[in-house]
Amino acid sequence: MSRTAPNAATIDVDLLVVGSGTGMAAALAGHELGLNVLIVEKTDKVGGSTALSGGAFWIPGNPVIDADGGDDSVDRAHEYLSDIVGDSATPERWQNYLRFGPSAVRLLQRTTRLDFMWSKGYSDYHAERPGGSAVGRTCESKPFDVALLGDHRDDLRAGSMAAPVPMPITGIDYRLINLMVTLPRRGLGRAARRLSQGLVGKALGREYVAGGQALAAGLYDAVLRSDIPVWRNTALARLLTVDGRVTGAVVEQDGNEVTVHAPRGVVLATGGFDHAADLRRRHQLGDLPELSLGSPGNTGDALIAGTDVGAGLDLLEQAWWFPAVAPLPGQSPKVMLAERSLPGSLMVDRFGDRFINESTDYMSFGQEVLSRQAGERPVGQMWIVFDKKYRNSYVFAGELFPHAEIPQDWFDAGIAYRAETVGELAAATGLPNLRGTVARFNELAEAGVDDDFHRGSGAYDRYYGDPSNHPNPCLRPLTRGPFFAVKVVLSDLGTCGGLRTDSAARVTTDSGDVIDGLYAIGNNAANAFGKRYPGAGATIGQGLVYGYIAAHHAADRVSTSTPADLTADIDDPPIVRSVDVTNSPGPQA
């Protein structure tokens, strides 16, 4: 058994959850089953990377899709995942994800005050593959009143983007508002609706938020109403074991160690190793800088604690890669999503050559960049090149609205360049092949067919394109200056390699032996989809679904087997009685 500090305080619970992002879903599932649950959070804020995210979840066949008139098939999702995942992950993992996904969503509907909606049209990332869906399987929360948190409002981690006025913007809103110039009726109408909701809500003492802020706030609200304790500023020090079984953990708060006995198990939900520079250099980035958009507390704590008790690791080279606008000195990268799909733009490498379908999903984008980094022709510095019409038509970097000038400090920092001709822009940026690249791109854009990289040929490409642009919503020639080049970096939403787990979220050794009492969910577990990202929200979806599975397994309510008939209804397991343990007061939030 691991040694504890002399005179350490001791607390007994049923289930310990380490991390307050999607770990809160595991806590809610355990609480509903009658378990006595404790959440510990390393930082002073609740929400983790979930609060920084878009807040969507990709869960096929879930009741939100059904209620909104969708007709999603779990059988088709099975075909899809079987095709795209291949042998990069064990089938039992994603099969159990499909099996229990709908039940995990029903849990959230029962236990939280969140109101979910289907993001209809938000295509799967590989919709053209067998079983893929162009209408999509992504759902998200409608705007949520964070004022419901009361005195705990400031506990919530702030989002990565904030509107200058009270205006909750969902993922669907973002897409439409981005088209406010080219499709004003839809774009401006949606913007007015959300602005009205924000301003009227503020007058009534409400504070509406959307995206990951809404999901994290809704989960935290449910945790508070369920009287599940959350200890902030409390880090995992080490796991406790008896005869190879994890029985709890030692946590540290304000320099004091506390022993937490948890006979039902420990759920690790600490996020990935986003900001563990040494690990990232060794397994992923090489000489590339670490520019993660993940929560600042994600430094690989679970990987360290898990391997100390024999856990295996997998897929450490993988992350939810995300191209982003290069940061100003001392700042973080700026989110960049629809920008790559909108017409009137292209992306080039250090020579000024195109190297990818700019509109591809962001994980595939990063994988291609890293593959080229290891090859004979590394991408090196990346740029997005566009014209004035593009700048006047769309939102850029999440903060520059149409017609807004690019800030002077971007030019001063060498992040942005402007020139009246493409040739002058090539000279200013040092991109020798840019003039020829733009000429070739313009030829393809005029025809509406990208023979080189097939931009606009897939449903996901077109989702973030401009439907007013014909014949291809993603392609338009750049013919009239001034022209701009903005530096792009490879960022990420978090790592997705980590602890090896089985279909019940139990941590295993490299040889596949189960470490009883230890579970891992979310980004500190190896991606259930291997090297693939099936659709928007698949990362949060894993945290929610495997949190549900882990809690139910800890309460002895699910098995590890996967039924052959994935379309069969899976009843939510009944409530079970908690084991008889006593919860001492412990540290306070």
Explain what you see.
By secondary structure, the chain is α+β, with helices and mostly antiparallel strands. 30% of the residues lie in helices and 17% in strands. The strands form 6 sheets. Strands 9-3-2-13-22-21 form a 6-stranded mixed β-sheet, covered by helices on one side. Strands 15, 16, 17, 18 and 19 form a 5-stranded antiparallel β-sheet that branches. The radius of gyration is 24 Å and the shape is globular. The model is unreliable at 1-7, 562-571 and 573-589 (pLDDT under 50).
Average residue pLDDT: 91
Cα end-to-end separation: 28 Å
What about the largest sheet?
6 strands, mixed
Count every helix, treating DSSP H or I runs of 4 or more residues as helices. 17
Task: Give the overall shape, derived from the CA principal axes.
Answer: globular
Radius of gyration: 24 Å
What is the fold's blueprint, element by element?
Blueprint lengths: L8 E4 L2 E4 L4 H10 L4 E4 L7 H5 L4 E2 L4 H5 L6 H12 L5 H21 L4 E3 L19 E4 L2 E2 L25 H7 L6 H20 L4 E2 L1 H15 L4 E2 L2 E9 L2 E9 L2 E6 L3 E4 L8 H9 L15 H8 L4 E2 L4 E7 L19 E4 L13 H12 L8 E6 H6 L14 H5 L3 E4 L2 H8 L4 H14 L11 H5 L19 E13 L2 E2 L6 E3 L5 E7 L17 H17 L35
Parallel strand pairs: 1-12, 2-3, 2-13, 3-9, 13-22
Antiparallel strand pairs: 4-6, 5-6, 7-8, 10-11, 11-12, 14-20, 15-19, 16-17, 17-19, 18-19, 21-22
Q: What brief labels describe this structure?
A:
589 residues, alpha+beta, 5-stranded antiparallel β-sheet, 17 helices, 30% helix, disordered N terminus, disordered C terminus
